[in-house]
Amino acid sequence: MSRCSLDIGQGCDYHVDMLHRPMNDTDDERLLADDTLAALQQEVARCRRCNAAGYDVVHSPVMGGIAAVPMVLVGQSPASPQGTPGGLPFNGRAGRRLFQWLARIGWEEEAFRQHCYITAITKCYPGAGTNGKGDRAPTRREQQCCRPFLVRELALIRPQVVIPLGRIAIEFFLGRIGPLDQVIGRTVVLSEDSPAPGACLIPLPHPSGASLWLNKPANQALVAQALEHLRSLRDQQTSIPNT
Q: What is the pLDDT of residue 237?
């Protein structure tokens, strides 16, 4: 089977040989990556860039996982600290829906967390939305403040698979997109100049429920299609168990 080499923005069916590209890291290199990732997380914990820029964010960075994993899930921003018991990412309402989706393809939450690094576009809780529905979407300025952290996380982990949740996360990798139904249910192999070169991108809508997009049956079918891509990938990637 030939290697898939589509650039950002093109849809494709992923190829197994791309997903199984060899991991040449030695044990020492992987331990170093874990140590460097831990140091980066400590740097994130000390960061106050958004506060200095005038944004009234709640400093509550929540990231989960180690460097030696094949997948990265990228959300929009952490939820309210009051809504994330245990300090785990996606441990509130949005997380319940996310793991309900994964349960449809037989992927248990514990196994998924063990084999996926979970992070977000911005690292602090942005506060409640002005309309009283969900959380406030981080501004472009806030996204730019946090961008170097995510770029460095991806460089350390070098994921084979990236799962962006929602428009903001999807656009981090693809740039401006049109309606979500043009990208949900498709797979994209990221180009060599992307923050995650060669990774297979499987976009999903954000599971918070704040948007009415998920209420349409046609869009629910696209989510199911995206989940099937994940199921096929997991079943063919022997290093990613589902239990």
A: 66
